[in-house]
Amino acid sequence: NRTMILGMPDDQLTVAFPVRRMAGIDQYSSFLSKCGSLRALIIRTAWGYNKLTELPLAVSNLKHLRHINLSRSTIVELPNSICDLWNLQILNLNGCRELRCLPKGMRFLRNLRHLCLQGCESLTHMPSGIEKLTCLRTLSMVVLGGNRGFQLSELRDLNMLRGELSIRHLERVE
Q1: What is the pLDDT of residues 106-134, one digit of tens each?
Q2: How would you classify the pairing of strands 3-5 and 14-16?
Q3: Structure pTM?
């Protein structure tokens, strides 16, 4: 059973496949390995089915990927290999309440325009190097890291930021 949704902005075509029968991360990886020119990946798990707590490593092979939407998923950690997706422009993690940290190599996502982190309540730290993401227009939250990790001064070069920015752990500023 396949669903095609036409009439999306910029004449995009979205094809949705029900994947609720996939049992485990290996089947997700196998499926994704056949999607080499995929531009957008939106992962949703139906209520009552297996929850996705990790991103399949096969995602890092999707070199044309521009948009990853994991919003409201139960993902706990993103693999550092996601930082090999140089074309990635949107990383939507809104509502990922179990997400604890972002990959250390985030600074390599130079084309990233939107890093959506609203509702990431378990996010305890962010990697340093975010200032290298000079294309960022959306950064909804930062978590300060004290002597290590993200520093408040890293916001200095992010001149294209728009909208609201929530700053957590201000008590870590020295």
Answers
A1: 999 999 999 999 999 999 888 989 999 99
A2: antiparallel
A3: 0.82
